[in-house]
Design a protein that fits this description.
The protein has 335 residues and is mainly alpha-helical. It folds into 2 domains: 193 residues, Four Helix Bundle (Hemerythrin (Met), subunit A); 62 residues, no CATH class. Helix content is 60%, strand content 10%. The protein is globular.
Amino acid sequence: MISALWILTANSFMQEPVGYALRNGRAEMVDFFALLGNPQLWYEFPHVLFGALLTGSFFVAGISAFKLLRKQQVHLFKSSFQIAIVVGLVSSILVALAGHSQAQHLMETQPMKMAASEAQWETSGESAPWTLFAVIDTDEHKNSGALEIPHLFSILAYNKINGVVPGIHQLQAEYEAKYGPGNYIPPVKTTFWSFRIMVFAGGIMILMALYGTIMTMRNKLEGRRIFLKMMPWAIALPYIANTTGWIMTEVGRQPWIVFGLQKTPDGVSPTVSTGMVWSSFLGFTLVYGILAIVLVYLFIISIRKGPDMGGHGDSSAREPMLYDNQDGKGAEVHA
């Protein structure tokens, strides 16, 4: 958690620079506590923290469901599923609320990112809809085949039905007047779709966690085999949401490395060659790829083996279960 705080402190400076002074063309830190008090940090940090809890809870719930389907150590994995799915429900809702607050802050600090996330080329009317789907033409700066939910973008931006949301063209003109000539429009398609994948994945997790919690409270979990079969696959959902969320955050900030201070082309080092960049990229990819393979292999071995019960029986032993055909309630039968 402390590591995440420092990482996000640096990232928040890139999104909303504070605590610095420009000296001889360099941005130098003059107030460390201003960095720690950066408003962007305290919108990002809870969002990331709750996302970590959500990732862990869905991992535990998915593995527990896998074991319950095979009737292995039912009492243990039923308990672990119950804890994980409740944590998953609470953290998924908190992630959504923290993300909503962060989006409203972005309307003040990076409105171009929010406009790109909606592919909103022109300033909205009195109320702005939120687009579920659209075919985006970045050459002609227009959308077609849009499926929209009325008022939702205004609610996302301002917590009210009516609220004008500035469009990309208006913001481009404002940025040119403030920062000078240039293209200040980020990759719209990437920002738009990464945002929606994150939202859809988050919505699915909320619904799955809610359903799992209800089934657990009603003691009907063991009879919901289709749901239990879905849960191991749902382990991927937090990773998808986390990844696409960061893609939206970083791609949507372009063309800036540090918003309002340094553009991406200006951050290219004249002493680093193309070959050096490729060798570093391929080297890190290879090392982390190998580590990922080893990690997944060890996970699979540990999951199949199950927990060490400390001499209280074979950890892979099955615990048969009888089911009531009418209501799906199960009665555990121990040998």
